[in-house]
Write a structure and sequence with these properties.
Elements (H helix, E strand, L loop, with lengths): L20 H9 L12 H13 L5 H8 L3 H9 L3 H14 L3 E4 L2 E4 L1 H9 L3 H16 L7 H6 L13 H9 L3 H10 L3 H8 L7 H19 L4 H7 L4 H22 L1
Antiparallel strand pairs: 1-2
Keywords: ATP-binding, Helicase, Hydrolase, Nucleotide-binding
Catalytic activity: ATP + H2O = ADP + phosphate + H(+)
GO molecular function: 3'-5' DNA helicase activity; ATP binding; hydrolase activity
Length: 261
């Protein structure tokens, strides 16, 4: 194979088994997968926040100039994105949700914006985390580790671990007095459990709290020394998924600490 500096012309050879030759030929002659920009949407907002924090950009014009050097700018026509309009919309939204502040033409990060960058989370999650931490300040239950585990239970795992109503109710009924107090403080009281036991669906914000508390109970069982195998069997989950939950919770707990700092 030719290498830069050794020569201008080179050849590459791929060695494969005879029975794989046809498959290799099909692979080499097939169409290439498209590489599409993921900046459109929240990705653009995350880029802007990071760039402002690093001092790369400080005005709307410099933000647009930076975005014009991105893959999104190259693919804007194919993706149907009006880049100047998308940048303006992203800036307006970041100001509206309190991530950025405007002083004339100058853009600066707010406190929660800086916390989101330090924690490496997007603004939607940062707002939700901030709200949960403020609520916890009013009534943090330290009788056991369950409430603390709830605060570091990753939001991203809610879509990966399906909520099992019957299993949740069974585990809830077996909670000790200290753990039950945590559930009550979070809003998961007897009325909520009664609705779940008769097959009703919890709606609104409480639905997410119940689902997240369900994941916290999985982490709590592991925290108390139960094996991965027994916990996965108890909650009828693959061991790999339970392990992913633990890893995600560990990473998210570090993000929560950095966010609070």
């Amino acid at each position: 194979a030719g290498r830069t500096g050794m020569g201008e012309v080179g050849e590459s050879f791929l060695l494969c088994k005879h029975q794989d030759a046809q498959k290799v030929g099909e692979l080499l002659s097939s169409a290439m997968d498209l590489c599409s920009s993921q900046l459109a949407g929240t990705g653009l907002e995350c880029l802007i926040i990071s760039a402002v924090d690093l001092g790369v950009v400080c005005t709307a014009n410099t933000v647009l100039a930076m975005c014009q050097c991105s893959l999104l700018a190259v693919q804007a026509g194919r993706l149907g994105v009006d880049l100047p309009e998308a940048v303006t919309a992203a800036l307006d939204r970041l100001v509206k949700i309190g991530a950025l502040t405007r002083s004339g033409d100058k853009l600066e990060l707010s406190k929660i914006g800086k916390a989101a960058v330090k924690a490496n989370i997007d603004m939607e999650m940062a707002k939700q985390l901030y709200s949960d931490l403020q609520t916890a300040q009013l009534s943090l239950v330290l009788l056991s580790h369950l409430h603390l585990l709830f605060l570091v239970t990753p939001y991203t795992m809610l879509d990966q671990v399906r909520f099992q109503q019957q299993i949740f109710c069974n585990v809830y009924m077996g909670l000790g007095q200290k753990e039950a107090q945590t559930a009550i403080v979070l809003g998961v009281g007897e009325q909520c459990i009664s609705q779940l036991m008769v097959g009703r669906t919890i709606k609104g914000k409480l639905n997410q709290i119940v689902h997240r508390f369900y994941l916290s109970l999985i982490l709590f069982d592991l925290w108390n020394g139960n094996s991965l195998w027994s916990v996965s069997k108890k909650y009828m989950l693959p061991r790999g998924l339970v392990h992913n939950l633990v890893v995600s919770a560990s990473a998210f707990s570090s993000s929560v600490v950095r966010f609070c700092e």
